[in-house]
Structures are given as structure tokens and as C-alpha cells.
TrEMBL record:
Sequence ranges assigned to domain Vitamin K epoxide reductase in this UniProt record: 8-149
GO MF terms, alphabetically ordered: oxidoreductase activity; quinone binding
Source organism of the structure: Homoserinimonas aerilata
Gene3D superfamilies for this protein: VKOR domain
GO CC annotations, alphabetized: membrane
UniProt KW keywords: Disulfide bond, Membrane, Oxidoreductase, Quinone, Redox-active center, Transmembrane, Transmembrane helix
Entry's localization field: Membrane
Origin superkingdom: Bacteria
Family, as annotated: Belongs to the VKOR family.
Transmembrane segments: 72-91, 98-117, 123-145, 166-187
The name this protein goes by in its record: Putative membrane protein
Keyword Nuclease part of the UniProt annotation: no
Amino acid sequence: MSQSPRGERFFGLFLSVAGSLGLIASLALAIEKIEALINPAEALSCDISVLVQCSANLESAQGAVLGFPNPFLGLAGFSLVLCVGVSVWAVPRFARWFWILFNLGVGAAFVLVVWLIHQSIYALGTLCPWCLVVWVTTIPLFLFVTGRNARAGVFGPVAARIGAAVWPWLTLATVCAYVAVAVLAQLRLNVLATIV
């Protein structure tokens, strides 16, 4: 099942917006990390409270999974998402292998984000504001890229039928994922008690 040109344009817009949001958050985190290296004694601008802060996340081992700060992964990854989003407007038909590789990249980002959510809530006990933007962006990015590719037949005819069936439910799935993260954070960190 091929995507309609109008549907692909909306999908390109979605990718462009998601890529831009993730890029902004990654850039802000990268700047905060550089500031922390230059002025280690100074509090970061995103350190709002003991619970809501960037410092604990950026200074932890989890903040540099591949040996360098995670925000630099975000700068590269979200730049690619933005580039693909803009490209969909100019070249609406990409090869099947392109979409598979793109989906694998977005899937890897999703797995990393799920792990970072777990680490942030259960190991570090903090919620990083800019990290939250990355989470909020990556979750629907993975769901909608996978749903689009399944519906478009990238993964075969059986997946195309499944993709067509689940496509209308992806927004609800995204909201449910957000609620699940919020409930986990509340149960573990008692976020509401610190706000009230």
C-alpha cells in the first residue's frame, strides 16, 4: 500500500517538527554539558530542583553511553531526522532499503530512550527537562515511523495490513506511553509532592 502524496507531505512535516524539537533539546543539553566542563562549580540553568535537573544526568555514566556525552548523539540523530523530513517534501519516494535503515536508526534511538527513562527514574532519581523533550519526541517518532513503514508495505504485505489497522491508534498509543512514563515517575519519585 503506497502512501498518498498528501499523506507523505504530512509525514515529512511530522519528521521535520520532531527532528527540530529533538535538535533544539540536544543542542541545549550539549551547551549545558560544555558549560559544566568550563565552570564545574556553577549550577546549570536547567537545574530547577533536586528532582528536576540536568546536572545529575549529564555527569553520570548514563549521560555518556558511548564514551562521549549523549547530547552529541542527539545532535547527529535528530539532524538526520530533520533532513529526512525535509527530503520527503522534495523526493517523496525513497527506496525500501532507505526506510528500513531509517526505521532501524529510529528504533535504536527508541531503545536508548527507554533505557535512559528507566535510568533517570530508577537509578538517578531525577527528571532532566531537556531529556524529557527528547523522550517526548522520540516515542512518537518511533511509533509513527514504524507505523508508516508497515502501512506502506516496507515490511511486506502482512505488515501492511497490520500497519493499516493500527495506524489510527498510534496517537492514542503515544499518549498511553506518556502516561505510563508519568505514572512511573510519580510512583518512584513522587513528583507531585515536590510541585505542590
